[in-house]
Specification:
The protein is an all-alpha fold. The chain has eleven helices and no strands.
């Protein structure tokens, strides 16, 4: 019990004194996760919208596959990215393995089903009367789509935030393709794993407190958006 209390107190001291290593790791994690989420959202919010607004054979199966990929194991995504970016892989010549870019690529793959699938769900939740009203007022197809997407904006924002939460809290992928290189690819989760293994519980606790705080902030934002 004393170890837990001592580690917690020391962790708070590291945070409130602005420990350079702690905030360097936290800043890198935020940057990687923000860039990953921005790229995934810019691609897969439109993809989810296209799937929702168009009818085609196999649409139901495609949506089911997307929803199944919500729980895609991070180590599996890491393996795919590792093989692709390794020297023997098709993109090995780019030299991206064990760089922040490799983690970003993996995160985009990991969270894209979440963003696309929840975008579809958000659009489905819009009352049919809104589309009928827009069309009855003479709105074009594009104007009608814009109206529906605008009505679903809080649900779409929730999808993006949940994707960000998934990216910032994963560990397997970041270790596999990032290599957990200190000062370069080490993130909150990977740093915690290495510090725990070396017995540096104070630093691991400080990183954990920051990670939980970020997760809490995301959940609060998601809750507020859902209420709206």
């Amino acid at each position: 019990m004393d170890l837990v209390i001592d580690s917690f107190v020391t962790a708070l001291r590291l945070i409130f004194t602005g420990d350079r290593e702690v905030f360097s790791i936290a800043g890198r994690t935020l940057l990687i996760s923000t860039v990953s989420t921005s790229i995934a959202a810019s691609i897969f919010v439109p993809v989810g919208s296209l799937i929702y607004f168009h009818n085609f054979p196999g649409k139901g199966l495609l949506v089911n596959i997307i929803q199944t990929l919500f729980s895609m194991p991070t180590v599996f995504v890491g393996l795919l990215v590792f093989i692709t970016l390794s020297k023997e892989g098709p993109l090995g010549s780019l030299g991206l393995l064990f760089t922040p870019a490799a983690i970003i690529i993996g995160h985009v793959i990991l969270i894209s089903p979440i963003i696309a699938g929840l975008t579809i769900s958000a659009l489905r939740s819009v009352a049919p009367e809104i589309q009928d009203t827009a069309m009855s007022l003479g709105a074009s197809r594009l104007q009608t789509i814009y109206t529906i997407v605008r009505e679903a904006r809080y649900g779409v924002s929730t999808a993006v935030l949940l994707g960000f939460g998934r990216a910032i809290s994963e560990i397997g992928l970041a270790i596999i393709v990032g290599g957990n290189i200190r000062g370069y690819t080490r993130t909150l989760t990977t740093a915690m794993s290495i510090e725990i293994s070396t017995g540096n519980f104070e630093l691991a606790m400080a990183l954990g407190i920051i990670l939980v705080s970020l997760a809490l902030a995301v959940n609060i934002l998601v809750s507020r958006l859902q209420h709206r």
